[in-house]
Fold this protein.
Amino acid sequence: MINQKDLKIRILKPGENIPYSLLLLADETREGINAYIHDSTIFVVEHQDEMIAVCATVMKDEEGMEIINIAVREDYQNNGIGYWLLLEIIKKAREQGLSELIIGTADCAEKQLYLYQKAGFRFSRVIKDFYIRKYPMPIFENGIQLKDMVILSITL
Ligand code: ACO
Ligand code: ACO
């Protein structure tokens, strides 16, 4: 069991290596990540000096922010860290005075859809065929082809 008191969250400093191995858990390709990562704020979570989770956010407009990538190292998953990290990001967005936080995931990503709703996000809209257009090859999760992106939002 992970003690949440041992988790530290901080913003990645300029010049530090971008944690691609973590980011690639939530995005299929490095090119895909490069399309947004340089405009993102990158939060990293450390446990006993090891980097075990990441969350990249981008501003959508003056009052709205998107969690564009969130990932927990595989050997640390299902220990409540993703949930803890979502609540930390929501708290920081509130402290920043933002009004809305959004997050998108695949239509068939049942764990993510469950977790985001548990953290307070609600279904907002669907971007049809997002994953069909984004990737040259069909991608499958839980035996279902990824097709649409579901956007969830939380009013802060
Ligand atoms: N279906 C439904 N719920 C599930 C499933 C499942 N197949 N598997 C696990 N769960 C539940 C767990 O029981 C737990 O809920 P509970 O605590 O109420 O029992 C919850 O899902 C998982 O919660 P955490 O342990 O807090 O989550 P974790 O630390 O594993 O982080 C995350 C979640 C970030 C999705 C992690 O699994 C991960 O890195 N996955 C790979 C990358 C990814 O898919 N990232 C999100 C892509 S979308 C985006 O980046 C915007
Ligand atoms: N999360 C994700 N998948 C699950 C879960 C879960 N918690 N529990 C079971 N499953 C999977 C099973 O593994 C199975 O998938 P698989 O065959 O790929 O392994 C699938 O869900 C269930 O498939 P079936 O066995 O064909 O479904 P079933 O005969 O149980 O019928 C139904 C489903 C109609 C929803 C039934 O469970 C039911 O009557 N539930 C109560 C009433 C209800 O909720 N009805 C729908 C309300 S909406 C409406 O009526 C329009």
